[in-house]
Amino acid sequence: MTMQNKITGRVYVLGDDIDTDQIIPAAHLVYSLEDPEERKKYGEYALSGVPTAQAGLPEGNIPFVKNGEHESEYAIIIAAKNFGCGSSREHAPAALEIAGVEAVIAPTYARIFYRNAVDGGFLIPAESQQSLVPFFHTGDEAVLDLDAKTVTNKRTGESYPINDLGQVSNIIDAGGIFSYARKSGMLKETADA
Amino acid sequence: MSMTITEKILAAHAGLKHVSPGENIWIDADVLMTHDVCGPPTIGIFKKEFGEKAQVFDKNKVVIIPDHYIFTKDMHANRNIDILREFAREHNLPNYYDVGGERYKGVCHVALAEEGWCRPGDVLFGTDSHTCTAGAFGQFATGIGNTDAAFILGTGKLWVKVPETMQFIIDGKIPPHIMAKDIILQIIGDIGVDGASYRTMEFAGSGVEAMTMEDRMTLCNMVIEAGGKNGVVAADAKTEEFVKARTNAPYKIYQNDMDAKYHSTWYYKAEELTPMVAKPHSPDNKASVREVQTEKITRAYIGSCTGGKFSDFVAAAEILKGQQVAVDTFIVPATTEVDRLLRTTMIDGKSMMQVFEDAGAQVGKPSCAACLGGPADTFGRTHGEEICISTTNRNFPGRMGSKSSQVYLASPYTVAASALTGKITDPREFLG
Ligand code: SF4
Hints:
The structure holds two protein chains of two kinds.
Chain A: E1 6-13, H1 20-23, H2 40-45, E2 74-78, H3 91-98, E3 103-106, H4 111-119, E4 124-127, E5 141-145, E6 150-153, E7 159-161, H5 169-174, H6 177-183
Parallel strand pairs in A: 1-2, 2-3, 3-4
Antiparallel strand pairs in A: 1-5, 5-6, 6-7
Chain B: H1 5-14, E1 24-28, E2 31-34, H2 39-50, E3 62-64, H3 75-90, H4 108-114, E4 123-126, E5 140-143, H5 146-155, E6 157-161, E7 165-171, H6 180-191, E8 200-204, H7 206-209, H8 213-221, E9 230-233, H9 237-244, E10 264-269, E11 276-278, E12 286-288, E13 299-302, H10 304-307, H11 310-320, E14 328-331, H12 336-344, E15 346-347, E16 350-351, H13 352-358, E17 362-363, E18 387-390, E19 406-409, H14 412-421
Parallel strand pairs in B: 2-3, 2-4, 4-5, 7-8, 7-10, 8-9, 13-14, 13-18, 14-17, 18-19
Antiparallel strand pairs in B: 1-6, 11-12, 15-16
């Protein structure tokens, strides 16, 4: 995925410290990420480790992916601090991407999740200046505008600032570390040369 | 200009004289480690990006240690091992520790130390968040994802942001009932699960200097539970002795400059430390054992890269010897070497393994086992509403298998004492 400047979609709201075991429980890490059929399993089980009461705030009990499906109706995740803490499994941002997530918006991220999201080109880890959890309900429609550096809740009409992506924006723009390294001449243009 | 140990290692591997926190730099890897969960997708990305016939950057620097899902009937998990085996064969990799034979090791972070891959001044990247364990050796060691690992596999390089260093000074004589696990649980409880995000956690002071290498590994193992990028303990004579006994490879010892800059410095008096637990469902949900000592448990687990090293079992055996456990108790040696030591080390005429079995514990085969839940047939995995006290490092919801189970993290002493009573128990009740 290379960067789009505007992402519009329904939001799914989560709390603090959503760890990678909640994003994709370890029992499911056995599936192939390359096999086009098998990788759908990651979409099916994305966020399946979140305790049901905290799944889809403020009400909770809202499944991220409907039973038997592998794509979610939510393209944007709004979460509180330290999103993606825990293991280094890249299956976590991959699972979210496979389920159809294009961006996460949280005030802070765990380091490895953030790197993986950027270097693998899976999704945009946008940083809000404060937790936006109180201002969104799961199911609200939101617009994340990366040029204007805002996210807007269409239901309330309110906009909230997003931090500049900083130095990593080059990698995000390129679509991941490999395309970035090719663009900047660090790697040869094509594989199998 | 002055630098910390971590800054010096990073500068040396970037070919720079000086680096400062916040800078993004490209550095050379000395070792790239992967395992059976993240190895196959890493290999997939490597082949896709560099081509089916591409060569790895340096086959002597690639270390593959299957450890997570080893003893299972799950066909997908077994296929992962097949992929690693095939890749190691194709590339003629000398450092592949295959399952099912003499070479098999078990939990990668403990095996890396045993096999001489933890060396002062080196850079170790691993596709596992607990790669930070090796900071105990004065190495820069950090966990990465599959894409980054595939990039290193092809180029030997990766970009990193130079982290700020937080210093944790533990001074004084550590009381005999306190283990490194109690100290790191205290620290994580104090700073929170994101208290060291993007930063280095460095451990120093007379308490740390007196620690064994295994204790220092326990400290560094859990820095990721505070969001840390790496942990570090300055290498000393003890480090050198450990390393030299396992490898002839060169290494380089770095020290902090006198006027090096730290993000913050935290002081702990060793004499004031007390046995700690992390309550469900977060490693920073701290309580002293005294505060929760009537809480009932239904299971005890001793194993993993944090609490499955030889010295962890020596501690557990001190308490379990000649006693009977009151709840299901699972013992999982981290590696085959730990397993061998449990069979050959005698306590009052009995092997340690026998001591555990006589106490009524079940002993599993060396691997990660239920530390991260895993396939349904994993040894020690929770399936229902168990309340487990464990020497592992994470107690997130569902981490040990079942979403409705609860996990308390504690030291091997505390876990063993609790196994005997069926409730959370201060180890001092059983230590002379
Ligand atoms: S023992 Fe647990 S924490 Fe350590 S590498 Fe294995 S799964 Fe990860």
